[in-house]
Design goal:
This protein is α/β, with parallel strands linked by helices. It has three domains: 94 residues, Cobalt-precorrin-4 Transmethylase, domain 1, CATH 3.40.1010; 83 residues, Rossmann fold, CATH 3.40.50.11270; 100 residues, 4-hydroxy-3-methylbut-2-enyl diphosphate reductase, catalytic domain (Cobalt-precorrin-4 Transmethylase, domain 1). It is 40% helix and 17% strand. The strands form three sheets. Strands 1-12-10-11 form a four-stranded parallel β-sheet, sandwiched between helices. Helix 8 crosses helix 9. The radius of gyration is 21 Å and the shape is flat. The N and C termini lie close together (5 Å).
Length: 293
């Protein structure tokens, strides 16, 4: 079999930046705390842990006396920074600049008294950070069915978690707009003084991968998608790959690979999430070539 790693997959630049920041500090001091898992990939976390990175929770902050704390790419709510300042903790802020920009834009509309709506997963670290910039008043939804939670008598602005599906975002935008118009017989929001804005804050690098992933998936008999089971982006991209190639399998490590996946197949493609390290995809490639090729 011919086994190929997708050259457009793996770490996005925001994750590369965060890992680089962590490795630089670890090289200098040999110790660093990460507030939450630095990325949603257990093998990469283990690699960095061997260099001295320790993952902590918010409840651990009061006990940190001997090292710096890294804010990962997902970002944090303002309250976290305030607490760390009060505790005298030195912060290394590695929030992805794309996420930082979304936080700033949300704050702008919050200050204008808009009803903030976030297309995303309410328990995701990035969304928790975004919520903090609205004093936790934003409404988080992930489907058209949930728009009934909104107050259509208020000005509304729709944002997105940076790793959500772009097509789903625009369907949600259209549904909210039509629902607002339906509140008024003449269908005119302007006549009643209401505003609705939608801000496509999905990461361009992430959304740009969709087309390439579809093409790559179609060009192979079998697709092996490598990602951490907790990766939101990984789940989205996996579903995209599977929609193009039914013979697509999600794995976290090479130990999950099954022999029967490759029976009668000639080409195998390997792809991954924005949190999947290149070295891991290469290791999966070598494993398949050694055991099944």
């Amino acid at each position: 079999m011919k086994v190929t790693v997708d050259t457009k997959s793996g770490f996005c630049w925001g994750v590369v930046r965060t890992v680089d920041v962590a490795e630089k500090e670890l090289k200098e001091s040999g110790k660093l705390y990460s507030l939450g898992e630095i990325i949603h990939n257990p093998l990469e976390i283990d690699r960095l842990a061997d260099k001295g990175l320790k993952t902590i929770r918010h409840s651990d902050l009061e006990n940190i006396k001997d090292g710096k704390v890294l804010i990962r790419a997902h970002g944090e709510p303002p309250e976290t920074y305030r607490k760390m300042r009060e505790l005298g903790i030195e912060v290394i802020d590695a929030t992805c600049p794309v996420v930082t920009k979304v936080q700033e834009r949300i704050r702008k509309y919050y200050d204008k008294n808009f009803q903030i709506v976030i297309f995303g997963k309410k328990d995701h670290a990035e969304v928790i950070g975004l919520l903090g910039h609205t004093n936790n008043t934003a409404i988080v939804i992930k489907s058209i069915e949930e728009i009934e939670k909104l107050d259509f008598s208020k000005n509304i602005v729709l944002f997105s978690q940076t790793t959500m599906d772009k097509e789903a975002f625009y369907k949600l935008r259209d549904a909210i707009r039509e629902r607002m118009k339906a509140e008024y017989e003449d269908g005119s929001l302007e006549d009643v003084g209401l505003d609705f804005h939608s801000k496509d804050t999905i990461c361009g690098q992430v959304s740009g991968r969709e087309k390439k992933l579809r093409e790559f998936s179609q060009s192979n008999d079998v697709m092996i998608f490598v990602a951490g089971k907790m990766s939101s982006n990984g789940k989205v991209l996996y579903e995209i790959a599977k929609s193009e190639n039914p013979n697509t399998y999600f794995i976290e490590t090479e130990s999950e690979i099954q022999k029967e996946w490759f029976v009668g197949k000639e080409t195998v493609g390997i792809s991954g999430a924005t949190s999947t390290p290149q070295w891991l995809m290469n290791r999966v490639k070598e494993y398949i070539e050694e055991h099944f090729s």
